[in-house]
Each structure stands twice: as structure tokens, then as C-alpha cells.
Amino acid sequence: MVNKQISEYISKFADMLNDSNVPDIQIVDDPAIGDGFRDLGFDMDCGHAFEDKYGHDAFRNPDALEKVIDSIDDIQLLGSAIFSQWRYYNHWAMGESIRDEESMRWFNMIIKRMQELMN
Length: 119
Hints:
Number of helices: 8
Radius of gyration: 13 Å
């Protein structure tokens, strides 16, 4: 049941992120997005757990993430990474776009991996 809820939530987040009709501000400023991640048991830890296991570069750089993504099999770690990255744009990014090319690649790799693991 939990995997189904996670899968549905991640798909909803991916749809919103990839829908150019949804304004960036709606994605970044909606506290319900963070609440949804938290309600599913993900931690907003600024990416520390992910960085501890896969390195700072993999948390920030899609090229580095691409090198390790297939070895990641921890849905909790992946979901917490997305939550933490979203929170960065929600709280600290100060005008950076959540939809810049590198961010979109990073988010979509993590989302795709989570979906693979849940199917």
C-alpha cells in the first residue's frame, strides 16, 4: 500500500514538474508538496544522507548522479533526496528555476529510478 501511495505521489509531482502550464511558483511555493513528502515518511535532511552515501556531486550534478543512479535501490533515500532538493528551491534558491536543464535532468532521473524500483 505504501509503495502505491509513493508511486502515485511521485507521479503527480513529476507530472506537475514536467507540465509547462504549471508555473514554477506553484511547484516551489505550495507547502502541500512538502507535506506530501513528509506524510509519506521522507526526510528533509538537506540531502545529507544521500551525500553521505553517493557524494555531494551526485546530489547536485546530474552527470555525477547518472554514474550511480542504477546502483541506488533505497526508495526512502531517493524520496528524501527529492524532498530535500525541492526544499532547496522552496526556501533557499532565491530565484533559481526548479526547471533549469540540470535540475530537470536530476529530478527526472531520481523519479524514474523510484518508479523502476516500485514496479
